[in-house]
Amino acid sequence: MPGLTGSCLCGAIRYAVSVPVTELRACHCKSCQKVSGAGGTVNAMLPSEAFKLTKGTLKRYTAIADSGRMLHRYFCADCGAHIYSQREQNPEFLSLRAGSFDEPPPMKIGMHIWTKSARPWSYIDPQAKQHPGQPDAPATRP
Questions:
Q1: Structure pTM?
Q2: Contact 40, 28 (CB under 8 A)
Q3: End-to-end alpha-carbon separation of the chain, Å?
Q4: Which of 63, 91, 99, 121 lies in the 20 to 30 Å Cα band around 28?
C-alpha cells in the first residue's frame, strides 16, 4: 500500500507509511480519552521504520501511561493534533492515530483495549478482541 500518507489538522506535519494497514486498535484508557477529547483513540500499530515524517517537526509529551509504562506522545506544536505515540520500552513500534490518514484504505477495528475504563457512550464491537487493560502488560502482583 505505497502512498499511504497523513497530516495534522493544519498541515504543518506530514508523514508517509510504507506498510499495509488493514486493522486498527481502539484504546479506551483515560489518557487517550483526555488527549482525544472523546472516548479514546483509534490507532494503526506499525513498525517504527515504516513511518517517515516528510514535513515539519513534532513536539513530544512524555508521561506514565495507565499501563505504568513511560509513553511518548508526538503532536503538532501549531494545531495540537496528535500523530502517534510510542512506548519507551518498545521503540521499534508506534501507535499512529488513524484519523490523521489522508485517504485511508478499508480498515476495521480488530481490538479494543482498556475496555474497563471505556466511556458509557463508546461502542465496542462484540466481534472484536477485547482487553480490560493493556494486553501485553506484565501481571500485577497482589
A1: 0.87
A2: yes
A3: 46
A4: 91
Closest CA to 94 of 77, 69, 72, 113: 72
Domains for the chain: give ranges and CATH numbers.
Answer: 4-130 (2.170.150.70)
76 vs 7: CA distance, rounded Å: 9
**Separation CA 90–CA 84 (nearest Å):** 14
Q: What does the pLDDT profile of the chain (142 residues) look like in tens digits?
A: 457 999 999 999 999 999 988 889 999 999 999 989 999 999 999 999 999 999 999 999 999 887 788 999 999 999 999 999 999 888 899 999 999 999 988 889 999 999 999 999 999 999 999 999 888 754 443 3
Answer for the pair 107, 94: CB distance below 8 angstroms, yes or no: no
**Residue 41 is placed in which grid cell?**
483513540
Strand order across the 4-7 sheet: 4-7, 14-17, 51-55
Q: How far apart are alpha carbons 61 and 139 in whole angstroms?
A: 26
